[in-house]
Amino acid sequence: MTALANPTMRTQADDARFVAVFALALEHAGGYTPEEAKRVAGTLLPDMLFYDPTRPASFPSNGWTLTDDAGDAFLAVLTKGKVRGTK
To answer: What is the pTM of this model?
Structure first.
């Protein structure tokens, strides 16, 4: 298993590489400034979705259900709200 596939093996260098590459995509796709893009990309780490089984599932705060539209949420981040989804 690679470090990128296993969060317990991931290093700060892995995170920095992800943030730099994804921030560039955010600048081009969403029109973010370089500073905004780095901040938004950094908020996506660690890339784990937490789930508390004592609370109802709901994306993005507590896991997700089969009807939650995580793809639309991602598109909204990627495009800085220009694409809001299909609902």
So the answer is: 0.64
